[in-house]
Amino acid sequence: MIWLHLLWFAILSIGNAEILVTAVNRLHSKKIHEPKLRHVRHLHDLLIPLWPVWLLVVIGCIRPGVLFNETSPTEVWLQQPLMIQAWMAICMAGFAGFSWSVIRYWIHRPARQQIEFKSTVVNYKRELGATITGEGPYSSLLNFPMNECFKVEFTERTFQLDRLPREWDGLTILHLTDLHFTGTIDLPFFEAVFERAAQLDYDIAVITGDILDSDELYDWLPRTLGQLNAPLGNYFILGNHDWGLDSDRIRQAICNLGWRNVAGTLQTLDIAGKRLAIGGSERPWMGCHPAFDAVPDNTFRLLLSHTPDNLSWARRQRVDLMLSGHNHGGQVVIPGIGPAYSPSVHGCRYAAGVFQSKSTLLFVGRGLSGKHPLRIGATPEVTRIILKATSSR
Ligand SMILES: [Fe+2]
Predict the structure, then answer these.
(1) 280 CA → ligand 1 middle, Å
(2) CB 3.0 to 4.6 Å from 237: which of 92, 123, 263, 275, for a disulfide?
(3) Burial code of 211-233, b = ≥16 C-beta within 10 A, e = fewer?
(4) 41 alpha carbon to ligand 1 midpoint, in Å?
């Protein structure tokens, strides 16, 4: 009977953690400034361990002390005040949600449009040594065992898209996201990553937000973003961390380097006689969505959206390819379980990877860094996308 009670405590504890993590993930997807979110995180940090301790001490040892007598779980349930009964029921629902997210993690496969995947991992800690560790916030995390924040995966993904004009077969896009310049991971790391990225073969370069996390690092921009010069242009949007700073100043500084801001607007290109519309969305934090509905039907639609939460809007706008970041792959992936934290209304569903939603293909990059420099099982990522037309077109 004790084992049955311990199992029941485990289910209720996991369910409790799932509910609190779900609430934190959803709140971080909203237009709320960081200082307010910090209070929510502190509450979550307190309540996750408090509930299992309460279960073990109060129900397990004091009243009715199920670890020392033969009370059945049903009897224990009925003896509790209504509020506790209600929270137990919510925790059971949380456990069901947790089980489903683990199953979804195991069965997830990249969308069928990704027809080829290659990658190379570069360990910049090994290549550059101590020069890449700075003294910004949370620098103690850099020493955390198994931290992979300096192991950058340069991925190459080939997407075959139905609406891609045959004339563009082989068109390439360099995608970077979530740079999070805080000073904790120092400039030589980012310079080296951009230097390698600049040497790749790409037609278009894009960045999907969260570039600066400090007001004192504007001078890093020319030495990083300034290294890229795509033949068909460099395009960017900002993210929620840029929104927390002086976003107008960041935007201007990046535009001064020759990058084109597409937030809330569209840039139209003529490539080999076919039209490409590149739009950007920083919703829900800033501005408005780009007006894809004003674009002719035969125009290929590329959306840069900081959060993948704009996917259903993009699908309604018949966006062909949507590139996002924001979720950092969860930053820490628990072996066998998957990521837990992802600031999205969908939780960890779109933490990273390739997803199809009707005619829209979504790619969510894991990004280069984060405010908290800790990554386990979710290495930083730079992506070169190769677009292929279907043979029937
Ligand atoms: Fe981010």
Answers:
(1) 16
(2) 263
(3) bbbbeebbebbeebbbbbebebb
(4) 17
Q: What separation in Å is there between the alpha carbon of 294 and the centre of ligand 1?
A: 30
Topology (CATH level 3) of domain 114-389: Purple Acid Phosphatase; chain A, domain 2 (3.60.21)
Tell me the CA–centroid distance for residue 352 and ligand 1, in Å: 12
The CA–CA distances, whole Å, from 79 to 55, 59, 250, 301 equal 13, 10, 58, 59
Per-residue model confidence (pLDDT) at position 275: 97
> Residue 362's pLDDT is what?
98
Q: 297 burial class (0-12, 13-18, 19+ CB within 10 angstroms)?
A: exposed
- Residue boundaries of the structural domains of the chain: 2-107, 114-389
